[in-house]
Write a structure and sequence with these properties.
single chain; alpha+beta; 10-stranded mixed β-sheet; 21 helices
């Protein structure tokens, strides 16, 4: 639904349903169809950005305005230093957030990169700024939704705001995870014993993830390509997807989604190709171990020569006229100092650690997605990601109408070759190898940006990364490049790109198991794809429940829990009873040493490890964990056999929308992770924009669902309309051609211009 205030404002200047006769810099038509999807059309790139920003603001202005306040480092000023926000994937206080953004987003360094983008990209972004500001002028800050009406933090934006936002997005799945350690690093801290069991990452189901499949002509019913995109992203905040259809110059005609601040779709399809992204296992930053001067812990040694760290006083404005807070941050030639006390990454009197991110300064992504959107086949997509190295931290999975399927794990990663990874190891690199790449900062030759004179210099070339085009299928569920098709594993590449011949996640194993089983029964089409993506089966349950029930025999102390598990259908459907009890149990045991009798075997990665270890103490430990899980539910007032869809719900006023999908760590492809509330669980992370795209003679055939709907305003009817669809496993056939758009039009087309 188009806001009445917007229509009234547009009528006042005579721009609804018609184009101004006067010469304008920006002009765009916005037509809404079912579920409030905007179809934005303009003859200029500036007009495209203008229309996209205006339409996005209609749906999500409060979310967007708060994000601009966040990346400007003004959360303490506007939301209070005592409050917190999510930075990367962790909740941090607002002062820490402000320190990070004010110290690590270097506008002086970023501004020249604006001009290195193509004319089209710059016009898009300038148009976006104009469209966002136009919406604020048309609507008036006092007339915005309740969450931000009249707030001081809602303001017009400029190029610097988009530079800050883009930089945050580029770092989202890389060094932003260590942002609190950068913002709070201070010398020299007491020497602490390093633990080999440190973890800076959140739970696996709380980070951007995804499943993606591209099926080639050998496996599809019509011999053309077919794509399934199933990103797992947050249900709240600026990383939410938003649907749009954009028609612009140069025959650009793309439908899909973007996150806050993106002026074109970043996942989607045109008439010839469809693509999706999954977060890659490649590492987009390195950490350098520095040797410090005995006389001064802010001086480090490179090739025996002392180099002083750069210190910066960061001033954080406070509300109500209070004195600003001043924090000091430190940086080196290898990047900012980072510290995590109690871990190997601790700033002591002898050592310190610096972090360098390959996406720092990356402003190539918009041009990459522009090229992808205009591609006519998957080879052109492969060329786009290879030539620009602009994709920040995601695999690209694509299918085309000709029956080719692409998996390209080609991103902006540090230029660390196999040889460099070996020669630049430190004595501690092995201790942290499972989570990050630690290099020797005492030698200049270990600086992978050595001699870099451009934004992409120092990065690993595409020819040394992983890419393949097949006629059967490729898929990824966030494990490494090593296996995107179990029929033919990839050769070994640099360790910076991820593990090789290491155990796969249960979600990846479930993907291969379910995909291969389905292809033995049917040729892939839209119907089969829907069954695959929303199967809601748990591979962990298939492997664990039967031997667990055998342990339950004659064990009265866990009788009720065993009965609930025994009655569970081993799926995470809305009607599944006992699903939450299994999730709680599995969370307690899944990382246990000796969980499986049969260890991982690189020659059989899809099926190993397996066979639950139940003998002796290991069996007793499993029953103890089940008893603990049942007790946890009992103390929370949750019945052991509560239907999953009564427990996991989306709240919209008095309505509760039951959801399906479950934990990825339990091998559920349709991942949904929630947080406990007083009387159940609400979703926070998981399946978001799900698209199934094939092709007929005329163009794309696309079914999709945006699980959390288009708008973040609870007062909007589009806050949960697609959530209802998702709940019932219903799909929306997306209108793409002009005739289809016209047939599904909701209200009048609005033309905005200035």
């Amino acid at each position: 639904m188009i806001r009445l205030s917007t229509v009234v404002a547009a009528l006042a200047i005579g721009t609804v349903g018609q184009t101004l006769s006067a010469q304008t810099d920006y002009s765009a038509d916005i037509t809404r169809t079912d579920y409030n999807i905007p179809h934005i059309k303009s003859d200029s790139w500036g007009g495209v950005g203008y229309g996209v920003a205006y339409a996005y603001a209609q749906d999500n202005i409060c979310l967007m305005a708060e994000e601009f306040a966040t990346v400007a480092g003004t959360r303490s000023l506007y939301f209070g230093p005592e409050n917190s926000s999510v930075l990367g994937f962790s909740e941090v206080d607002n002062v820490t957030s402000d320190v990070f953004f004010r110290s690590q987003i270097d506008l002086e360094a970023l501004r020249p990169g604006w001009h290195d983008q193509s004319d089209a990209a710059r016009e898009l972004l300038d148009g976006y700024i104009a469209g966002y500001n136009r919406f604020l002028r048309d609507t008036g800050i006092e007339n915005l939704p309740e969450a931000c009406a009249g707030e001081d933090w809602v303001r017009e934006i400029d190029r610097d705001d988009l530079l800050r936002l883009n930089q945050k997005q580029m770092l989202l799945a890389s060094s932003l995870a260590l942002a609190p350690g950068i913002a709070t690093a201070a010398p020299p801290g007491p020497v602490e014993t390093a633990s080999v069991h440190f973890n800076f990452r959140p739970h696996e189901d709380e980070v951007p993830a995804s499943n993606g499949w591209a099926f080639g002509g050998e496996e599809t019913a019509d011999g053309r390509g077919l794509l399934i995109g199933n990103p797992h992203f947050p249900w709240e905040g600026p990383a939410r997807f938003w649907q749009m259809h954009v028609s612009g110059p140069d025959d650009y005609d793309v439908m899909g989604v973007g996150i806050a601040g993106t002026p074109i779709p970043t996942l989607g399809f045109n008439k010839d190709v469809a693509w999706t992204h999954t977060v890659t296992a490649a590492r987009h930053f390195t950490v350098y171990m520095l040797a410090l001067s005995p006389e001064d812990p802010t001086v480090y040694l490179v090739d025996g020569q002392p180099v002083r760290m750069t210190s910066t006083d960061v001033t954080i404005p406070m509300p109500d006229g209070a004195d600003p807070v001043v924090r000091k941050t430190y940086s080196t030639r290898f990047g900012p100092i980072v510290t995590l006390p109690g871990s190997p990454l601790n700033w002591s009197e002898r050592t310190a650690f610096a972090i360098r991110d390959a996406n720092s300064g990356n402003q190539r992504a918009i041009d990459t997605w522009l090229q992808i959107g205009m591609a006519k086949n998957v080879r052109e997509i492969e060329a786009a990601v290879s030539e620009t190295l602009g994709i920040p931290w995601v695999n690209t999975i694509a299918a085309d109408r000709y029956g080719d399927a692409l998996h390209a794990d080609i991103t902006a990663v540090p230029g660390v070759s196999v040889e460099m990874a070996q020669s630049c190891k430190t004595p501690f690199s092995g201790l942290v190898a499972s989570q990050l790449t630690l290099l020797d900062g005492t030698r200049e030759q270990c600086d992978w940006r050595r001699g870099a004179n451009s934004s992409s210099a120092g990065l690993l070339p595409a020819t040394d990364q992983a890419s393949r085009i097949r006629r059967d299928y490729v898929t990824n569920s966030n494990d490494s490049y090593w296996i995107s098709n179990p029929r033919e594993p990839y050769r070994e590449l640099s360790p910076i790109l991820g593990d090789f011949e290491e155990a796969l996640s249960l979600r990846t194993r479930s993907n291969f198991t379910e995909t291969e089983a389905l292809l033995k029964e049917v040729e892939m089409d839209h119907k089969a794809a829907k069954a695959l993506v929303f199967g809601n089966k748990s591979l962990a349950a298939d492997m664990v429940v039967e031997p667990l029930l055998e342990l339950c025999v004659d064990r009265e102390e866990v009788a009720d829990a065993c009965e609930a598990i025994g009655g569970w259908d081993r799926e995470f459907e809305k009607t599944s009873r006992g699903a939450y009890l299994f999730e709680a149990f599995w969370e307690k045991v899944r990382r246990s040493d000796g969980l499986w009798e049969v260890p991982f075997d690189a020659s059989d990665p899809v099926n190993t490890p397996n066979t639950l270890a139940t003998e002796g103490d290991r069996g007793e430990a499993l029953l103890d964990a089940l008893a603990e899980a049942a007790n946890d539910l009992d103390e929370a007032g949750i019945a052991l056999d509560t239907p999953w869809g009564e427990f996991l719900t989306r709240r919209h006023g008095e309505r509760r929308i039951g959801l399906h999908g479950g934990p990825g760590v339990a091998g559920v492809l349709n991942m949904q992770r929630g947080r406990l509330v007083e009387d159940g669980m609400v979703p926070v992370h998981g399946s978001s924009y799900i698209q199934i795209v094939g092709f007929d003679e005329d163009g794309p055939v696309a079914d999709a669902i945006l699980s959390y709907s288009q708008s973040t305003d609870p007062a909007s009817e589009h806050y949960s309309d697609q959530t209802e669809l998702y709940s019932e496993k219903k799909w929306h056939r997306l209108p793409f051609t002009p005739d289809e758009v016209e047939a599904h039009r909701q209200g009048d087309t609005i033309t905005i211009a200035e």
